[in-house]
């Protein structure tokens, strides 16, 4: 029986110019909003924090110092 990757969270290793799958899936969850991000739409992540973001605005917010959030 073939295993489906639909509706499954992927685990990724984030690199400066891309990411590498560690476990299969079709989406990741935004580290801030928990929004599902399809892998084909994933554009923003942190290499240092190893976490994905749903948008550029959310990514910028995630990198603000705590006192500015």
UniProtKB/TrEMBL annotation:
<dbReference type="Pfam" id="PF09866">
    <property type="entry name" value="DUF2093"/>
</dbReference>
<protein>
    <submittedName>
        <fullName>DUF2093 domain-containing protein</fullName>
    </submittedName>
</protein>
<dbReference type="InterPro" id="IPR018661">
    <property type="entry name" value="DUF2093"/>
</dbReference>
